Amino acid sequence: MARRNPDIPFERYADDAILxxxxxxxxxxxxxxxxVRLAACGLELNLQKTKIVYxxxxxxxxxxxxxxxxxxGYEFRPRRAKNYRGKYFISFxxxxxxxxxxxxxxxxxxxxxxxxxxKTLTDLARMFNFIIRGWVQYYGRYYRSMLxxxxxxxxxxxxxxxxxxxxxxxxxxxxxEHWLRRISVRExxxxxxxxxxxxxxxx
Length: 203
Known about the structure:
The protein is an alpha+beta fold. It is built from 5 helices and 5 strands, in the order E-E-H-E-E-E-H-H-H-H.
């Protein structure tokens, strides 16, 4: 890339890479050149995972077989955005990928928080906040609102935990939801995901 294509920006992590081309013809030429170069090194390009993606937005309104891709846990695709004047438009933006979101939800489910009735809400937050905060810092760097549906199951689990722990909430899910909602408003920094506004989705 440095010798033959210095004008084409690219990013690489391990064996994954993204190359920013201006036209489809340029992308096809570059793909073919990479195939030749890798072959000379005794390597082979995985053509099933390699694709040319059309970065569709308000300035590029055509269509293509591929209009999204994932890279480092992010999915890049057309998304609605708002400019500094408050006007909405379509931009090609990254956000947490569904695969990464599923992995997060699966890990949170494995914590089995609803069974930890021997702990206080503060104890649980102290036990797991460092993990949640890491997810927020990484996947929340772009289009943070896409993390809201990822963390809503965590609050539902906390509601189940409250119903098991407190007799006055046992069998009263709606009451437990309002209880958790009040705590999230009163102590928005207690849980890391509440700090990004997920608490507003509890009740």
